[in-house]
Amino acid sequence: MADRNSRLSVKKKEKKVEGKASEEKDKGGKKADKVVKKPEKSPGEPKAEVEKTNGGDEGATGEAKISKENGEFEPIELPPFEIVKGEQMSAFYFKFQFRNVEYSSGRNKTLLCFRVDTAGGEAEPLKGYMEDEHATAHVEEAFFQQVLSNPSQECDVTWYVSSSPCPACAAKLTNVLRQRKKLRLSIFCSRLFDWDQPEIVEGLKALVSVGCKLRMMKPSDFVHVWETYVEKEDQSFAPWEDCQENYSYYMEKLAEILK
Q1: Is 24 tagged catalytic?
Q2: Three-state secondary-structure class, residue 173
Q3: What confidence score (pLDDT) does residue 53 get?
Q4: How far apart are the first and last CA of the chain?
Q5: Domains with residue ranges and CATH for the chain
Q6: Locations of Basic and acidic residues compositional bias (predicted)?
Q7: Catalytic residue among 82, 131, 133, 140
Q8: pTM for the complete prediction?
Q9: 3-state helix, strand and coil shares in percent for the chain, rounded to the nearest 5
Q10: Staple 62 to which of 9, 74, 91, 184, CB 3.0 to 4.6 Å?
Q11: What was the pLDDT predicted at 114?
């Protein structure tokens, strides 16, 4: 993980991004913008365990440094890719990242809430959440590296994700399901990522063809995630005004993809 100065720099940058996203969210009417592509993942402020999955922290000193020669800012290498893993996410992350809007300004990471039920129900279900930062691999792939690494385990896995898989992740998940015959995966998505792109359509169709159950999150699903995976801290939650309408919109798009 980057050093303290890097983290402070990242926090300042994220606050600006979130502020801008809030302004954009208030502009215009419904369906004004298409769901945009996921840019590279930007870091957040996790209150959970952080696990490195790629490299060390040498040279990771912030977003930019000042050149001694001319006093100008020069870009430097970003901190290493990280996966944040814990039992619950912050209320802010849930309300912002999981909102099923038709645009995704500022929502440049994927949050994944999981439940793993083992065969026979003898053990307590394994629950938690993960989020990714600095995209070199995504949280969908990291789940099978860090949470469910045993390829022979028989279980039912349920995900609630802030965005549907990108083409690369869809392909990797398809391969996982082909190889792990005892694994059953259900994915509930808040938003569809770049749903009108041919490679997205092909990837989601392939994923469903190997047995994955792909659904959109309805209002009651957002309530369930809030109750199960969020640090509420005496806060209350009710689905936003257009939650049902956006759910219906995305359901139509998903039906078009899978027809």
Answers
A1: no
A2: helix
A3: 36
A4: 44
A5: 33-56+81-258 (3.40.140.10)
A6: 15-55
A7: 140
A8: 0.68
A9: 35, 20, 45
A10: 9
A11: 96
